[in-house]
Amino acid sequence: MCVFAGGALPLASLLVWGLSGLPAFGDFHGAYALLVDRIVVAQRHATDAVTAVNFDYRALDTLGEEFILFTSVAGLAVLLREQRGERLRAITRGAGEHHFQGASYALRALTLVLVGPVLVLSAYIDAHGAITPGGGFQGGVVGAAALLLVFLGGSYLAMRRLSPHALVEAAEAAGAGGYALVGLGGMVFAAAYFQNFLGLGTPATLISAGTIPLSSLAVGLEVSGAFVLLWAEFLDQALVVRGR
Amino acid sequence: MSFLPYGVAAWLFMIGLYGLASSENLIGMVICLAVLQSSTYVLLLAIGYRSHASAPIFADIPPGSRAVDPVVQALTLTDVVVEATVVALLLALAVQAHKRFGTLDPARLNPLRG
Predict the structure, then answer these.
(1) pLDDT band at residue B33 using 50, 70 and 90 as cut-offs
(2) Quick one: closest CA in B to A72, which residue?
(3) Taking residues A126-152, what's their average pLDDT?
(4) How much is the average pLDDT of A10-23?
(5) Residues of A in contact with B14 (CB under 8 A)
(6) Is residue B57 helix, strand or coil?
(7) Is A89 helix (H, G, I), strand (E, B) or coil?
(8) Which fold has domain B4-108?
């Protein structure tokens, strides 16, 4: 405790000193932000400035961000691979511990009812990223949560049946590659990588803002796949892998 | 009063750091790291806030209205993704550490044990 205080107090005072140099809360005048707020609807026909920044103005950075997720899921699969002396238990029907332990009938009924609406919500958030708050990352996580609901209310077997590893991996790779391809389309049909090359449409309609909805859907697919794989790896550790 | 959000960010950072230093469980350490990193969300969003401004969504307000900074919000999204990946990898390492050493107490992870 004394050692921690000895290190933390100077750090805390340094932090407070640094923060006190910032402009007062609510008094922000960043030139770039003000410019984006002013021109985004006229220039890109997107009404959600955050998504426009993510999938258009900073699309290349988002490519890196997407591949951070992609690489970390690959790294996770390597870390949690089958170790020496471990064996995988066959997932069979009727194996009691493959069910979520606390699942009551009420929970199972509720999750069953929720799976469909959650999937629809995910697609909605993906598709409307350019109009209202949302986009591929948010919609993707919501979509992956639908499969987690299947596990909560049904069983691990049902979750694995609905999301075979090969299919989820293919979907994740298709999403990641698809987003990079949207960027290449900018090079082919316009001047530069990730330049918006599709018709911009009417602002605040479903087909608008050019490549932004396309990018959003690709990223949504990638994020859904990544999170399903991530959760399946951890659930495998708890339910399927048996040690020496 | 106008510096309160920055204070919250600093407090989250320090409380997360204290948790990291004092935690006796690897899972707890990962959660403390998440708390520590969430201070950056508060800081980023606080920096981009403009008083009496709405969200940078121009679907129901006229374009050009006073809105907060969308760029730091996009950066916060990147931050969230990075935190999710970091937490996932650290939890995977905790799983393997528990398999190898039979404990999650970082003080009892003995690297010399076979």
Answers:
(1) very high
(2) B85
(3) 85
(4) 83
(5) 8, 11-12, 15
(6) strand
(7) coil
(8) Helix Hairpins (1.10.287)
3-state secondary structure of A95: coil
Q: Which of B80, B75, B92, B76 is nearest to B30 (CA)?
A: B92
Neighbours of B88 (CB within 10 A): 23
Show me where the domains of chain B are located: 4-108
Q: What is the DSSP annotation of A205-225? A: SSS-STTHHHHHHHHHHHHHH
CB-based contact A172:A222 (threshold 8 Å): yes
Q: Where are the domains of chain A?
A: 2-242
Answer whether A78 touches B (CB < 8 Å).
no
Question: Would you state the structure tokens that stand for residue A68, as one six-digit string?
Answer: 């951070």
Residues of B within 8 A of A244 (CB-CB) are none
Residue A92, pLDDT score:
57
Q: Tokens in use for A83?
A: 């170790």
ipTM for this prediction:
0.81
- The amino acid sitting at B104 is L
Q: Residue B17 and residue A119: Cα distance in Å, rounded?
A: 38
Over residues A48-104, the pLDDT tens digits come to 888 888 888 888 888 888 899 999 988 988 888 877 767 666 655 555 455 666 667
Please choose, from the candidates A144, A125, A147, the residue with its C-alpha nearest in 3D space to the C-alpha of residue A217: A125
